[in-house]
Amino acid sequence: MKENKKSVILFAGTTEGRQLAEYLQELDRPFVICVATGYGRDLLEDICRPDRTGCMEIRQGRLDVTEMEQMFDELRPELVIDATHPYAAEVTHNIKMACSKRKGLRLLRCLREPGAGDSRPGVIHMPDVEAAVTWLSSVKGNILVTTGSKELAAYTRIRDYGQRIYARILPSAEAVAQCRSLGFEGRHIIAMQGPFSEEMNLAQLREYGCAYLVTKDGGAAGGFPEKIKAAHKAGAAAVVIDRPGSGVGISLDEIKGQLKEWMDHERKGSIYG
């Protein structure tokens, strides 16, 4: 990496992650993007191009603490930004642990604001997926699950899940294959890229005759308010998986402000140092 510019490692995987990557390009920062999946990589390929000087590469794969430490030793960043999903508790914990073992390495956690409008009637809060599955097992009616494919296996404990559940997932071959391996087929696999409008959510709830919509609080960027409003209009209960207790961070705008301040401080240092 260039010696005259501070380098950054950006753990992406969200809308905010892409926006931060674009902002780092504007600031002409040398940085590396880390994503978990090939689909996440595809969504960022246009940012990391030979004709651009900021993004050095995109690294794909789920890393444990040791692997992150090895990457930090290799790249020697001065700043790490965690812009992973608000519910990615494990990877956020790993990033925090790996950063804590490297002296002088600064960590910023970008966390989107919780969604609004979830206090209306018909919204049922659950502490985790396991609790949601247990509760859904006790009621009747079709279910639109919008929490992705990663935790979909838990829902197979629901009786007649293959007929009751409609799984909305990312349109990746890996996600579709995982759904099929769990016994979901045909119309019960909805492979689409979000976030979705209120109208689209409403149309799907009505098309599949769903009495329940399962979601996480992805905030405005994740289309959470639109899901809640659509469920209300469809007469469906919104089952909300609450955010993990470790949901602590700062907003996208605050991250950008700190990056700008960091860059300005560097420039002054090069002038007066």
From TrEMBL:
Gene Ontology molecular-function annotations: precorrin-6A reductase activity
Pathway(s) where this gene product acts: Cofactor biosynthesis; adenosylcobalamin biosynthesis
**PROSITE patterns per the record?**
COBK_CBIJ
Q: What is this protein called?
A: Precorrin-6A reductase
One Pfam family cited in the UniProt record for this chain: CbiJ
Which GO biological process annotations does it have?
cobalamin biosynthetic process
Provide the species name.
Enterocloster bolteae
Its keywords, alphabetically, are: Cobalamin biosynthesis, Oxidoreductase
